Amino acid sequence: MPTAVLLLSGAILAVAGLGYLSPEFGNWVFAACVVIAADPGMALPSQPLGHAVPYVLHVFLHFGLLHLAMNLAVIVGAGRPVGLAFGTGIRGSSGFLVLFFLCAAGGAGLQVLMHSGDLMTMGGASSGASGLLAAVGWVMGGWRGMLRLAVPWIGLNLLGAFTGLVIPVPVGWFAHVGGTVTGAVLTPVLLGLFGERRA
């Protein structure tokens, strides 16, 4: 398993575990990491690290064990081949993490951009994990492989967003779309910049 995937998964698990053990820490993580969206002009509640940092840190905030388990399954499953494609050294591991967190930021950004109505909060690693779905498609089959995985996932999420698909928990449909599109655009670029050349 690539080092970057282990570090990322371990960090997400550690934050979740500490949040369960210490409600005070869990409350701080929520306040610091949750992405808040609201209509323009609506005052946002203050956050310990400001309103920009959660665009990246929301990947450490999960709403229940099922939410956490689903995201970790995608990170490990899709992350392994992507991490191996980058390489397991410092350069490749850094590239993998840059890709993941840029996908997370892209997903959060689109969710906020498309939001309208009452104040909304968002957390979870599915924005970054969605980017890994596009990335693993690229790694396994180039543009065609990427499209085979990314297009159905984007379509499903757009369907959910525009039809108000009812499921038991709220879903950041546009965060998934934004993360996937970011992954599709940046994976070839970042592999070229950070991929460890093999002799």
Describe this structure in words.
- By secondary structure, the protein is mainly α.
- The chain is 71% helix and 3% strand.
- The protein is built from 7 helices and 2 strands; from the N terminus they run H-H-E-H-H-H-E-H-H.
- Helix 1 crosses helix 5, helix 4 packs across helix 6 and helix 5 runs parallel beside helix 6.
- The longest helix has 38 residues.
Helix and strand arrangement:
Layout: H1 3-21, H2 23-33, E1 35-37, H3 54-57, H4 65-86, H5 90-114, E2 120-122, H6 126-163, H7 173-194
Antiparallel strand pairs: 1-2
Helix pairs in contact: 1-2, 1-4, 1-5, 4-5, 4-6, 5-6, 5-7, 6-7
Distance between the termini: 21 Å
Spans of at least 5 consecutive residues whose pLDDT stays below 50 are none
Q: Biggest sheet, in brief?
A: 2 strands, antiparallel
| SS field, number of helical segments | 7
Structural classification: mainly alpha
Estimated share of beta-strand residues = under 5%
Give the radius of gyration. Answer: 17 Å
By DSSP, the count of extended strands is: 2
Indicate the percent of residues in helices.
over 70%
Write the element-wise H/E pattern from the N-terminal end onward: HHEHHHEHH
The backbone outline, from C-alpha atoms, is: globular
For the biggest β-sheet, the strand order reads 1-2
Question: Taking all residues together, what is the mean pLDDT?
Answer: 91
